[in-house]
User: Which sequence fits this backbone?
């Protein structure tokens, strides 16, 4: 499966709430430890831009749909997103080192 990237901007007032929702989602993911998932989230310093990278092993259903805190993150992003609505876009890995997607 390709790596999926979600890139979006939020209203300035929503940065802290989105950041907290990301942290809560990652706490839940770490607690459940789903197999075959590599997941990273970034906030571009000094901006309102967020970027998520999701990489699933072939044949694995996305476990994030079954994690309440991850669904809550999606709802929080939807509430604060500005501009184009966030949508996953496939990106092609042309190099990687370590465990990053």
Assistant:
């Amino acid at each position: 499966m390709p790596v999926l990237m979600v890139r979006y901007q939020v209203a300035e007032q929503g940065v802290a709430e989105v950041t907290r929702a990301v942290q809560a989602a990652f706490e839940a993911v770490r607690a459940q430890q789903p197999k075959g998932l590599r997941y990273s989230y970034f906030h571009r310093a000094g901006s309102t831009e967020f970027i998520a990278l999701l990489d699933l092993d072939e044949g694995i259903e996305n476990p994030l749909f079954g994690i309440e805190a991850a669904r809550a993150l999606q709802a929080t992003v939807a509430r604060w997103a500005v501009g184009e609505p966030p949508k996953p876009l496939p990106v092609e890995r042309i190099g990687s080192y370590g465990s990053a997607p």
